[in-house]
Amino acid sequence: MRSITKVPRGPIARLVVSFAFLVATPTLASAQDIDTAVDLENEGIAKSVQSQMRIDKIDDQTDDMAIEYRSTLDQIESLRVYNSQLEKLLDAQLAELASLDEQIASVTVIGREVTPLMLRMVNTLDSFVEKDVPLLPSERRKRVAHLRELMGRADVADSVKYRRFVEAYQIENEYGRTIEVYQDTLDMGGEERTLDILRIGRISLLYQSLDGAEVGAWDRRAGQWVELPSEYRDSIRRGIRIARKQMAPDMIRVPVTAPEDSRR
């Protein structure tokens, strides 16, 4: 048999209901406070995360700026060193320009002095070739003619002209201390003949017919070619072979014209 509890009526009943409401109210209030606190905590965490993200971003930007700053400092230092080197180069170029200005100023003076010298040189060389033994006469006359033609050219610098003159004199100097053989066509008693010419320095100019049967020499005093006795054939033949590097250098017997007294 179930027991039934009756709710009291009247003032006592109202008191019980009020008490029950008061007991339930704090429980509801505590649940709302907890939710509010949780929401506030979550909001605070979210804000903290956002703040940390901003801090991390600012930190990354700061690192990038620091790297860029150091790179800029390195570039500035490099530019400072480069500018310093450029200043040295500029000073050197200015000094070189000053030197060039002095040289240019002296070129005109040197040109005025060198030109008469070269004219005397070409005249001296021309006279020397005509009076010398007739070794390579066509080649040497052509060289002198080229030098004269060079002196009349305005498009050739004086330095180039002078170098050509020096080269011509060096070639003439080499003739006096070398030995060579070449072929030339000579007028021998009104007859044009092709002969082997043997030049031994400037002391002796000899010839041999192509068949080797005839030999001769240039006679300075007579100013003409003269035939030599057959006893010189072997020496001249060996001299030609030596000049052509067909045999080792050796002593050979050749006629030499005695020098004349220059005071005459």
Instruction: Tell me the Rg in angstroms.
Output: 59 Å
Strand content: 5-15%
**Number of alpha- plus pi-helical segments:** 4
Mean pLDDT: 82
Protein architecture, described:
The protein is an alpha+beta fold. The protein has a domain at about 180-255. It has four helices and five strands. The chain has a five-stranded antiparallel sheet with strand order 1-2-3-4-5, with helices on one face. Residues about 1-10 and about 10-25 have low confidence and may be disordered.
How do the strands and helices of this protein lay out in sequence?
Blueprint: H1 11-131, H2 137-151, H3 158-175, E1 179-188, E2 191-200, E3 204-209, E4 215-219, E5 224-227, H4 233-243
Antiparallel strand pairs: 1-2, 2-3, 3-4, 4-5
Features:
264 residues, 13% strand, alpha+beta, 5-stranded antiparallel sheet, disordered N terminus, 5 strands
Question: What is the compact description of this entry?
Answer:
The chain is of the alpha+beta class and 264 residues long.
